[in-house]
C-alpha cells in the first residue's frame, strides 16, 4: 500500500521568505510523486511531478521539489514566497505502472503575510 | 477549452433525495476517478474506471453508483442522500504515466 505524510497542517511565512512544505511517502514499488495546489473553491492544479527522470523537479510558479529515495521524501520549496502562493498544497503518490490511483496527503495550508 | 468539466458546481438538496453529478473529459484519457474531499480538505478516492470498466471501488456505500457510458464520461449517482454525504466531489482523468487532471469540483450540501 502507498501513503503520504505531510508534516504541518499549516505553514506560515512572510512574503519574500523561503517556502518549505514537507512530504514523506511510503511505497513498496518505485513511485510517481506529485504536488498539487488548491486555491479556495477551485479544483486541484498540478505544480510539479516526479516520474523517475531527474530527481530535482521544477514546476510552475517558481516551485521545485527534490526526490530523495534514501529519505523517502519529496519536499516542495520556493525561494521567495509571494502573497498569491497562499493556498492548500497536497502531495500525492502513485505506483509507476498501469492506471493507478493517486493517494493524497492530508494537505498543508500555506499562509503568507506581508 | 476545459479539460475536465463537472456539473453542477453546487448542489443543495434534502436528505433522502437522489442526485447525480456529471463529468466529462476531452483529454482522451482512459482512466477516470471520483474523489471526495471532506470538510478537513482530505481527499479520498471513491472509484476508478479504466476504459469504462470499474477498477477501484474503495468501500463506498452502495448508495453511490458510478456509471461510465463511454471513456470520456463518468457520472456519479447518489441515492437516499444523508447529511454525511455533504462534501466536495472531484472528478479526475489520467493517462498512463501522467498526472491526474481534476475538474473544478461539485460542492454537495445535504440539508
Q: Could you characterize what this model shows?
A:
The complex is a heterodimer of chains A (114) and B (111). Chain A has 114 residues and is an all-beta fold. Helix content of chain A is 0%, strand content 53%. Chain B has strands at 4-7, 10-13, 19-25, 31-37, 43-50, 53-57, 64-70, 73-78, 87-94, 100-102, 106-110. At the A-B interface, strand 5, strand 6 and strand 11 of A face strand 5, strand 9 and strand 10 of B.
Helix content of chain B: under 10%
User: Could you describe the largest sheet of chain A, including whether it forms a barrel?
Assistant: 6 strands, mixed
Judged by helices, strands and strand pairing, the structural class of chain A is mainly beta
- Sheet with the most strands of chain B? 7 strands, mixed
Strand content of chain B: over 45%
Query: DSSP strand (E) fraction of chain A?
Result: over 45%
The assigned structural class of chain B equals mainly beta
Write the element-wise H/E pattern of chain A from the N-terminal end onward: EEEEEEEEEEEE
- Give the helix tally of chain A: 0
Q: Tally the beta strands of chain A.
A: 12
Largest interface: A-B, 23 and 27 residues
The overall pLDDT of chain A, averaged over residues, is 93
Mean model confidence by pLDDT of chain B: 94
Cα-to-Cα separation, first versus last residue of chain A: 41 Å
Low-confidence stretches of chain B: none
The rough form of chain B would be described as globular
What is the 3D shape of chain A? globular
The number of distinct β-strands of chain B equals 11
**Distance from first to last alpha carbon of chain B:** 34 Å
